[in-house]
Amino acid sequence: MDPEWLNHTETQTNITEVTNINKFIEVMEYHVPFALRINKCLTPIWYLVGGIGNIVSARIWLHPRMKACNISANYLAALAIADFIYLFLHVFYELENPWLVGTLDLPIWCEVWNMLYMSVQYLCVLLVLAFTTERFLSVCHPFKSERFSGKARSLKVIILLLLVAFVVGLPQTYFWEVSDDECFVRSSQLVPGEYTLYSIYTWTSEMVMFGVIPLVVLTLNTCVLKKIKSVGKLNINESRISYVRYNMVATTMTLMWVSFYLIVTTLPVTITFAIQNNMVLGPPMPISQMGDNPVWSSYFTYYTARVIIREICMSHHVCNIFIYCSTNRRFLKHTKDSILGPLLCYFKEDDSSTRQYPTPLLKNKNLLLNQSSRVQLRSQSRS
């Protein structure tokens, strides 16, 4: 929740100043309704697709056969679970802004939600860094990777990353509070023109998590691509490619596409966050005149761009299942079985039930066939 409307008050009936989120949404609906429509229409689609996709992905990656042939299955399952939790928590934010339901304006829950919301985002990025590092070691330093790879070790790494994400997100419980029946940053941490603990910590942690780490992931993937090219592209197109090598190639391509997708969808949001402190609301004035004010006009342009970028980049919590299906045949087969399996079983049961009760005509036909066969057997035995 952005505290960008907190420095304004309404003084006259014809002068609009943004003091809370209700006034903020009112101004945005008047001047940039397109941005709010995108938010209200696209986000529910992400919830539906991401909710189903992440549940299916987690179930498939936790399947014993998938874990047996993919050493990074635990990381991908944990990523699917983290993405699902993120979408679940995002529902509360969506109801608060732009739907103005007030789902976060509760003591304790306001602080806990902000901590969980940031921690799960940190965890997603850290998980991508973890399996990218594992793949980098497997391809570029195969002999050293034995010390760091393994299913038991991956579980320990996931638990460690979970603790790191929780610790980094824990200060959010101090920065946020419920005041005047609204959940926003403490007033002591919003001093105009000064660098407070909130601004320093939030800016630093987000730049590291969503700026530095994606660049590290990009660097590791570049090294992996160079290594693959230097060894003859792993002979992907050779007809004699072995079963083990095929699994390694499929796993490598899956992880690299997930990593690149995270980079593409994370860095733009980080850039918009970095310039957010330079964007301020305009002076108090009638709402109909705000579009003519250069400060307000600049902010409306920034807000529209930020909403569009945020909605598009939110897809990395949603669309990983499509990457898995397009780069991993085993995952695609399990996905078809998970989605189409119940339908096929239903139709098979329906067919079997109809076969169990043949029509009287079929019964008579079967009876005649049985009698004729008995007659033939008797004649053969007499002869």
UniProtKB/TrEMBL annotation:
A single MF term (Gene Ontology): G protein-coupled receptor activity
Membrane-spanning parts: 45-62, 74-93, 113-133, 154-176, 207-225, 246-275
Protein keywords: Membrane, Transmembrane, Transmembrane helix
Query: What GO CC terms are in its UniProt record?
Result: membrane
One Pfam family linked to the record = 7tm_1
InterPro entries associated with the record:
GPCR-Ligand_Int, GPCR_Rhodpsn, GPCR_Rhodpsn_7TM
| Name listed for the protein in its UniProt record | G-protein coupled receptors family 1 profile domain-containing protein
Specify the species.
Patella caerulea (Rayed Mediterranean limpet)
